[in-house]
Amino acid sequence: MIPSTHYQAFHRNPFVRPPSRWITLVAAAGAAAIAISGCSKGSPQAAANSPALSQIKLAANTSAKVNSLAASIAVHSVGAHGGGLTGTIQMQMRPSQLIEAKFDVGSASSSKIHLDEILTGQAIYFKDPAFAKSAGKPWVKVRISQLSSKSGVSFGSLLQNLEGSNPLNQTKLFTASKDVRVVGTRTIDGVPTTEYAGTYAPQAAYSGLTSQMRKLLGPMLRSIGTHPVHFHVWIDAQHLIKMADDTESVRGQTVTTTFTVTSVNQPVRISLPKAGETAPLPKL
Fold first, then answer.
1. How many domains, the chain?
2. 217 located within any domain
3. Residue 63 placed within a domain
4. What is d(CA 113, CA 143) in angstroms, rounded to the nearest whole number?
5. Quick check: is 24 in a domain?
6. DSSP 3-state assignment of 186?
7. What is each CA distance from 197 to 53, 175, 246, in whole angstroms?
8. What is the share, in percent, of the chain residues with pLDDT greater than 90?
9. What is the residue range of 92's domain?
């Protein structure tokens, strides 16, 4: 979701991660689940069949049925190209796809910039100071049918990042964990949640994805390599993720992504730029 010209330190969006991930677990297990998980570490096989993992899987199944959502996201990278990103995303998955992302991005070597991106079924719109002056308009519009690599920007990757930015998709990755456990409870924005923590191996997570999900999340998982991903996830009584964070090592960077889901299955209001505000991609 982040153009590589601006922020090569981040491998996905946030959400992104993937990116790079988001909803909250059930309090139904409550004190009993906490007591069980807190008193015994258990074997890997026991962890694979644990009540905690069952709740993660239930949240993943529930997430797949969500029609729309809004979330906030924050990404922090530590390393040679460290920096940060904060922003919001709102998505409509059904009946048609519509995504809007707004980010403030900054790195150790550059000042903070603001990026706006909108994806429809026909085109990608983006507002980027790197193109505004040469385009002569605040927004640039690229039709999906015309996507190609131009001016050092891979719009195919931008499309993939936006399509894969659904934070709830990340829940499926958590189901690959062999050590997930309940660690407590927390109220987030007035909603009681249960907190789970664990790790997963990228290759194991990839193996459990559908072919469509592999297209969306595969690049992010491959970039992590063999390093385990550490995560925390907060799930509510409706089996929806309210908040999640994960930390991973990517190309010498330690990247932590946190997202908070602010609405689920509510109307998404995204206003497309007016024709007079858009220009085709300029030749730089």
1. 1
2. yes
3. yes
4. 24
5. no
6. strand
7. 10, 12, 10
8. 37
9. 30-280
